[in-house]
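Entry type: protein chain
Record version: 2
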Amino acid sequence: MLRATDALVAQLVEHLICNQGVAGSNPAGGTTLRPKGLREAQPRGGSWGEACPAKPPGEDGRDQRTWYVYIIRSIDFPGQEYTGISTDLRQRMADHNAGKSPHTSKYAPWDLLWYCAFPEKHTALAFEKYLKSHSGRAFPSKQLKSTETDHP
């Protein structure tokens, strides 16, 4: 089922790609919101197994890994949020919560609020850059907050 937030993210990514002169389309998959209190990221299928493999570059030399742009919030300091990018979201969350990132170590532990999967690195980087921009910082509070009631 496509929620309004999913469509908004797809339109925003399409806009970012078009404005950068990069050919592309909406990201494969879509977005998934995670309920509050989730301590470990889970893929859409509920199992990491083959659902989210870190794929090596293909024979054509193109990177075939899935790239994730994510937003996390500190459990102990709810005013602290961090936006990042990774090809292994589960490991990245473990690193954040283990204090291995200098930017997030002092506010650990963290909850995963939201993530979006992208098939291409340049698209994921463009969306992460947008989320970290002045106008992009409003995106989580305006678009994601309204869908929190979708999850019990």
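Comment: The longest strand covers residues 110-118.
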